[in-house]
Specification:
The chain is mostly helical. It folds into two domains: about 5-100, Rna Polymerase Sigma Factor, Chain: A; about 115-185, Arc Repressor Mutant, subunit A (Orthogonal Bundle). The protein has helices at about 5-15, 20-25, 30-50, 55-70, 80-100, 120-135, 140-150, 155-160, 165-185. Helix 4 crosses helix 5 and helix 7 packs across helix 9 (about 165-185). It is elongated. The N and C termini lie far apart (about 90 Å). Residues about 1-30 have low confidence and may be disordered.
Length: about 190
């Protein structure tokens, strides 16, 4: 506990309105270390049991609560209630921030990159698509290249191929239809 002389000095400081110090804001002239020892288990219980926060994170929240308590300039009349309410608010804020993040699974080391799961299939599709494009007429290949790979509109394709807008649209449609037919004939299972 605190030294009686320190307590009486702090109480006398509290009675002088022009000399309100941080000692008064520390919870009615009590030592913060003693307060921490007295209320740590209660606040840890609230964080861990009531709000289901891990012990390490709950301990961090307790530190934040006591920091806020020390920085509080208003005189706290009921220290226990103030600390409990602050711990509840800090715990709720903790879960609000945790809701925005997603934890990695415990067996992350045993899992492979999800993008590599279909890597062989992806390469097979790309190779088959290249083969199908080789069977197309050069004008169809160029039309599909301009429209799908370069992202040009039908009007821009028409200007590039020196044709009408309507014919460019028809050409894109027919060339795409033809490459699909070739692709499906290559990939069809023959019995």
């Amino acid at each position: 506990m605190s030294d009686p002389n320190t307590l009486s000095a702090n109480v006398s400081e509290a009675t002088q309105p022009d000399r309100v110090t941080s000692a008064v804001a520390l919870g009615a002239s009590r030592d913060v270390g003693a307060l921490y020892e007295e209320y740590r288990d209660l606040l840890l219980f609230i964080g861990c049991r009531k709000f289901r926060i891990g012990e390490g994170d709950a301990e961090n929240l307790i530190q934040e609560v006591f920091l806020a308590y020390m920085q509080n300039e208003a005189q706290v009349e009921n220290t226990r209630s103030w600390l409990v309410a602050s711990m509840c608010n800090a715990s709720r804020a903790y879960w609000r921030t945790q809701a925005r993040t997603e934890a990695l699974p415990d067996d992350i080391d045993d899992q492979s990159d999800p993008l590599t799961h279909g890597l062989a299939d992806k390469f097979a599709v790309m190779m088959t698509l290249r083969q199908a494009l080789k069977y197309l007429q050069p004008r169809c290949r160029e039309t599909l290249y301009l429209h799908y790979l370069e992202g040009r509109s039908a009007a821009e394709v028409a200007r590039e191929l020196d044709t009408t807008h309507r014919y460019a649209e028809k050409l894109i449609h027919n060339c795409l239809k033809r490459v699909r037919e070739i692709y499906f004939s290559i990939t069809a299972v023959k019995r």
